[in-house]
Design a protein that fits this description.
With 422 residues, this protein is an alpha/beta fold. It is built from 11 helices and 19 strands.
Length: 422
């Protein structure tokens, strides 16, 4: 098994990569730090409205969470609707739930409009019950979504077995609004569309200093300075020290994934409708099958070890439990990425200074959230009121016991791999 520099998607994507380091000083309307879903969505929508946009990516397109994603285009938030309302109030909570419920439509509309080659499927996603208590949780979620008129189905264990090819689950919640994509293909497709609309994208260009001078933002790199009237920091879980308050407000956690070799007809019965799946287990796991017939299995935690490592043993044990008929399956590659987790599981967007913005804390919902925030921020800075944003502006606040919680999560996730690999 190989460890991917980014992910499986880095090599399997049908969309071409874009490499173009910054060369010299430039001036633009909107400077965007980060070449993931948020930054590329902002560049695309900004360029389409006539803004001169320039994306600055320290590595390559989709290098962070976007290219390491599972690829589930989920509706809603991590939280069930009623808990969103508990945290934000009834009116604001309902508005956010309703808007995030429609977010997959935005993603798939962009894919169709720009002919993005990312193997999209629109057969829903499955939130699968790992135990009877998980099914009780899903039943409550289904009731809440039904009250809002959402197209979701609570499935029995038998119905879940038909859709997954496994008898291991006690039931599932199927959300017909959702689907799956090749996540790197989507990121690169957004970049291609943004370039075609007139945006500039500089890769391999790390912003080392951000200062304000004479009403403009100056973004200093080793290969030039970008001067812009507006700037957006779109780094989410990969935020560094450019604006330290951003990375201090969330707890970083890891999610690792393992991909088998293409299995062809041998795995045709596994998720035959191409739905993506994640579980109700406290240490959440995910499962999907890609366009080439690979099974992709993941869970919270870091990718540990190589060909005989802990994560590989965990993956083999999980596949034997879910699909014993497969026998001994070889994993082709593995990788992990970072998630920006907050205690309340609610997104953040900040006005850090005049004409300087930063959305963050996507809590594992990067595809829809990043796309939506990129669009909404452009609408706001071109004249729309703050109400266009999914959530109101807030000040960055340090997460309590951030380092301790991060270490605790990593230890717990590693222990989970140990327990399920013996």
């Amino acid at each position: 098994m190989t460890h991917s520099s980014v992910s499986l998607w880095d090599g399997s994507s049908a969309e071409p990569d874009h490499h173009a380091p910054l060369q010299g000083d430039v001036t633009c309307d909107l400077a965007i730090v980060g070449g993931g879903y948020t930054g590329l969505s902002a560049a695309l929508h900004g360029a389409e409205t006539g803004l001169d946009c320039h994306v600055l990516e320290a590595e390559t397109i989709g290098f962070g969470g976007s290219g390491r994603n599972v690829g589930l285009v989920n509706a809603g938030l991590w939280l069930p609707p009623e808990k969103v309302c508990d945290r934000l109030g009834q009116e604001a909570g309902n508005a956010l739930v309703e808007r995030m419920g429609r977010a997959p439509e935005l993603v798939f509309a962009l894919i169709e409009k720009h002919a993005i080659r990312c193997a999209p499927t629109r057969t829903g996603t499955l939130h699968a019950a790992h135990a009877p208590r998980g099914l009780r949780e899903l039943r409550a979620r289904a009731e809440a979504w039904h009250r809002l008129g959402a197209p979701v189905d609570l499935l029995t264990a038998g119905e879940t077995a038909e859709l997954t090819g496994s008898k291991a689950f006690h039931g599932a919640l199927r959300d017909h609004r959702a689907g799956t994509i090749d996540p790197m293909g989507y990121a690169r497709g957004l970049a291609r569309a943004a370039l075609a609309a007139g945006a500039c994208i500089s890769t391999g260009t790390r912003v080392e200093r951000l200062t304000r001078e004479n009403g403009f933002w100056k973004l200093e790199t080793r290969s030039g300075v970008v001067t812009a009237r507006h700037a957006v920091i779109c780094t989410n879980a990969y935020s560094g020290d450019l604006w330290p308050g951003l990375r201090r407000q969330y707890v970083p956690i890891r999610f690792f994934q393992l991909a088998t070799e293409p299995l062809g007809a041998q795995a045709a019965h596994i998720l035959p409708g191409q739905q993506g799946l994640w579980t109700t287990a406290p240490v959440m796991a995910a499962l999907r099958r890609d366009a080439d017939g690979r099974i992709i299995l993941g869970a919270m935690g870091s990718l540990l070890g190589g060909d005989t490592g802990l994560s590989l043993r965990w993956g083999k044990r999980m596949l034997r439990r879910l699909y014993p008929e497969l026998g001994d399956i070889r994993f082709e590659t593995g990788w992990h990425g970072d998630i920006a987790l907050t205690a309340d599981h609610i997104f953040r967007v900040h006005r850090l200074d005049e004409n300087l913005y930063a959305p963050s804390c996507y809590n594992g919902r990067g595809i829809t959230t990043g796309t939506l925030f990129g669009q909404a921020l452009v609408e706001h800075l071109t004249g729309a009121s703050e109400s266009v944003l999914p959530v109101p502006f807030t000040e960055p606040k340090p997460a309590a016991a951030r380092a301790l919680k991060s270490c605790f999560h990593e230890a717990a996730f590693s222990a989970h791999q140990v327990l399920l690999s013996v």
